[in-house]
Amino acid sequence: MKVFLAGASGAIGRRIIPQLVRRDHHVIAATRTTSKMDGLRTAGAEPVVVNGLDRDSVMKAVVSAQPDAIVHQMTGLATIRSLKKFDDEFALTNRLRTEGTAYLIEAARAAGARKLIAQSYTGWPNVREGNRVKTEEELLDPNPPKTMSRTLDAIRRLEASVRLSDITGIVLRYGSFYGPGSVSPVPMDEKLDLRHAVRALSRLKKDLRAGTRKHFAP
């Protein structure tokens, strides 16, 4: 099978290539950066430079490749430094989830691709009800925090456009990845635990300064 992998040089894309190659798939590896082409070629893929936010660039690359399937792994997470302004930090990724997905669907249709697999996300986007273990069929939060609303809207639009397309669409909601090449060098849970501990200590200090002893009550 010929697979067009959009976002091939990212943390996930780089790990998908060898798995596809081992299964004898022909991988067309799309990247925004020419400097990453040699690495993709060494991994066994056929590299191509594509701007995921340029309709003509996407159309030309996909139609030229004539893939059987397209795998959408495009994100813009490498530059994230702080989550205080969540939607601002995810602005590029959100465009890739909306505009980029629309271009890939249009290109898939023009090229005759039979399947499109897209990356989504689970965890904070899920509605706060039911079991902690969620599937791709679970509802997304209808009332997300204001600072995350644009990001959740982009996730919602990505999932709807892929699932409602006339091409066979599959949405996979990823969890948080950490380690070399990812945004987080340590597990997100450890970060959250640390933040909670810092907040608890801060509250305790404020209470002690105010002369209260509620934290030590039996």
Describe this structure in words.
It is a single chain. Helices cover 41% and strands 15% of the residues. By secondary structure, it is α/β, with parallel strands linked by helices. It has two domains: 2-185, 3-Layer(aba) Sandwich (Rossmann fold), CATH 3.40.50.720; 187-218. A six-stranded parallel beta sheet has the order 3-2-1-4-5-6, with helices on both faces. The radius of gyration is 21 Å and the shape is globular.
Write the topology of this structure.
Elements: E1 2-6, H1 13-22, E2 26-31, H2 37-42, E3 46-49, H3 55-65, E4 69-72, H4 86-89, H5 91-111, E5 115-121, H6 149-163, E6 168-174, H7 188-209
Parallel strand pairs: 1-2, 1-4, 2-3, 4-5, 5-6
Helix pairs in contact: 3-5, 5-6
